Amino acid sequence: MMLLSGIDAGGIAINWGQNGNEGTLAGTCATRNCDFVNIAFLPTFGNGQTPIINLAVIVILVPMDALV
């Protein structure tokens, strides 16, 4: 626990998707309600599969300090 006490894990990270009711990426960033916006979703890859990106229906608010 002593090692973790000096780590700053503050901030909020969200996942932004391409679904119409999630709004625009610019709008999400403009709210300034989060510190990080993750847009990297690659659910299909490897084993000879063609990589497919899917940005739909993904928005999760996670306080970063909850992950420590």
From TrEMBL:
One of its GO terms (cellular component) is extracellular region. The keyword Metal-binding does not apply. PROSITE patterns: GH18_2. InterPro entries: GH, Glyco_hydro18_cat, Glycosyl_Hydrlase18_Chitinase. One of its GO terms (molecular function) is chitinase activity. GO terms for biological process: carbohydrate metabolic process. Residues 10-68 form the GH18 domain. It comes from the Eukaryota. Keywords: Glycosidase, Hydrolase. PANTHER family: ENDOCHITINASE. This is Hevamine-A.
